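ligand=S-adenosylmethionine
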Amino acid sequence: MVRYDPSFYAGAAIHYRYGRPAYSPQLEAVLAEELGLDGSGRLLDAGCGPGVLTVRLANMFEGAVGLDPDPAMLAEGRQAARERDIANITWIQAVAEDLPAVAPGPYRLVTFGQSFYWTDEVRVAEAVYDMVEPGGALVLVGHHAEGRAVPPSPGPPRIPHDEIEELVRKYLGPTRRAGHLVACNGGAG
Ligand SMILES: C[S@@+](CC[C@H](N)C(=O)[O-])C[C@H]1O[C@@H](n2cnc3c(N)ncnc32)[C@H](O)[C@@H]1O
């Protein structure tokens, strides 16, 4: 966990909306099946960034909240929702450590899309535990689960990770950074 610093994602929002690999096309079906979702209740997408998950999942709930400390990320989320005529999302600028006060429950589902590791995990998990309704869930959404087969690509060509790493090393040096600090997770975010 690293204390949030506004420089972490400065300038990244637009690229996060368009440039990140999409989550699995099976995500909605798996969530609906595993959690018995029936359109009721609310979603909280914490560390929502440009609202990739918030916008994708909002219509599976009566209402949704996208929460992120970075105002440019939230602006991208608002824009993405407007473009899709999705009107049931509230956007909140805050860190997850300030839950539950900034976005009180109850929620049917609380998601963290590659954002949980940025938070004070135990404190945030304990807060979220008290915010989900009976039968609700906290779900960490990512691209891989350790010990499981890598799922089929959603379509776009393979990301050239090795070449990108090489470019980063060439221009920025071997130490991975987040904003003006050193990255907490080896730069996976
Ligand atoms: C890797 S991005 C993921 C964005 C989005 N969830 C997605 O799946 O594309 C991580 C996000 O976590 C946010 N973040 C960083 N520290 C946070 C904290 N303490 N609480 C909540 N969000 C945080 C960042 O602003 C950033 O938008």
